[in-house]
Amino acid sequence: MTDAYRLVAEIPAVDDYLRLRVVAGLSPKTREGASIGLPNSWFGVTLMFDGRAIGMGRIIGDGGTAFQIVDIAVEPAHQGKGLGKRIMAALMDKLNGEAPDGAYVSLIADGDARHLYAKYGFEPVMPASIGMAKRIIRP
Q1: Distance between CA 74 and CA 103 in Å, rounded?
Q2: pTM over 0.85
């Protein structure tokens, strides 16, 4: 990996967050939602390339019993270089170092990303549990 990549322990800026979600194929979010949600992150990392944000990942939760890994994204031009692993490793280092014993860490694995997450000990919860979601849509 080239020295041009630098992982910083900070939540991405709103504009970077909104852009990275879309270019990485994640669902778009509103500026309002991002402006409220990002400051409430438990931890986040931003991956920089030549001074520009090209990747990110966050942990949200209550800080004690429940955590969720969200927003793992890398610009397509930089994918396939182990950068998702670098982001995930930083998030797991933070959890392993600071989350209380017994904390529950969850995530939603889209497509082949499940293979990356399995390397960090994540396992499917079915059939005992099933992930469920609801999106709030204003008329």
Answers
A1: 27
A2: yes
